Amino acid sequence: MPANLPPQYSKAEEEYRKATGVSERIEKLREMFRLLPKHKGTEKLQSDLKQKISRAKDELEGAGAGVKKTGVSHKVPHDGAGQVVLVGAPNAGKSALLGALTHAKPEVAPYPFTTRAPYPGIMLWEDVPVQLVDLPPISPDFREPWVPSLIRSADAALLVADLSSDDVADETEAVLSGLAETHTELVGTLPFDNEDESLRHIKTLMVASKRDAEGADDRLEVIREWFSPRFPIIPISVELQEGLDDLRRSTYDLLGVFRVYTKVPGKPVDRTRPFTLPIGSTILDLAREIHRDLEQSLKFAKVWGTGVFEGQTVKRDHELHDGDVVELHV
Ligand SMILES: Nc1nc2c(ncn2[C@@H]2O[C@H](COP(=O)(O)OP(=O)(O)OP(=O)(O)O)[C@@H](O)[C@H]2O)c(=O)[nH]1
Ligand SMILES: [Mg+2]
Questions:
Q1: What's the CA gap between 166 and 173, in Å, rounded?
Q2: Structure pTM?
Q3: In CATH, what number does 257-329 get?
Q4: For 225-239, what is each residue's pLDDT tens digit?
Q5: Which residues surround ligand 2, an ion (CB under 5 A)?
């Protein structure tokens, strides 16, 4: 976070953290955005704030969205280090992919529109759990009305493109344009400036599925020509179990987080489960993640890891790195 933010900004941020209602949070986020000096050094923060405003607005407007008349909610509570949705045309291989990367057992069938409801599963990348959510397909003729809002509330997306289909490029482009109609844009790289608050960008990786299919190599070339460098593309085959390790790693990377382990003074490191934080996070961010009250009571921390000597005492604004071990002192 840039150090030279005006004190009014910090005050607004403090109020934002204490805000209890969504409207109040939106108001404070807008105030923070207004107070933020607009230059290259704050571009990331500007973009983060806009995303937060957009999310909060969705929350406000969509309090009842995703709930069908029958009262069934399609919302999937976030779990693990992040929620990644599986998006694609009918029959693209989304459910088969969920089955290959997690212990979930969704229905897989050789005809379109098999999946009718969201289906979550937990994928492990090393010691980090990442939540994947399989979704019904999107086609020019039909999409479940609640699907875009579920995509908008995810942290990232895997766009599955079917290498066994001659029309793979058109079908995949139709998924993108269908979502664009709902102000939901799947992008390989998040833009720095987004003037339109209602437009949501979701960081996306393209998965070229069924690489084992006849003619798949030629279609992969077509896909690369069409969608690269717009999206990173990872070819896989669930049938042959190919490309899946690469995909696990890239899916984790898509979340833009890193791992930190904590320890209690005088005790060994807790390696059972890391905390995951957005890249660029500090000691203070970790403290907040562990417990709200820690933010106030934290005095200093000791860190073992990158850019420090073993057990170095650091301040609250010290930036953490993947694999760091942190001992918080209150
Ligand atoms: N050859 C081959 N076939 C696959 C592979 N992955 C999935 N399939 C087949 O593709 C068909 C569709 O798979 P699903 O996973 O049900 O596709 P989906 O995208 O979930 O389909 P909808 O739920 O209708 O959107 C099934 O017959 C799968 O067996 C693969 O890696 N190779
Ligand atoms: Mg399916």
A1: 13
A2: 0.84
A3: 3.10.20.30
A4: 999 999 999 999 999
A5: 94-95, 114-115
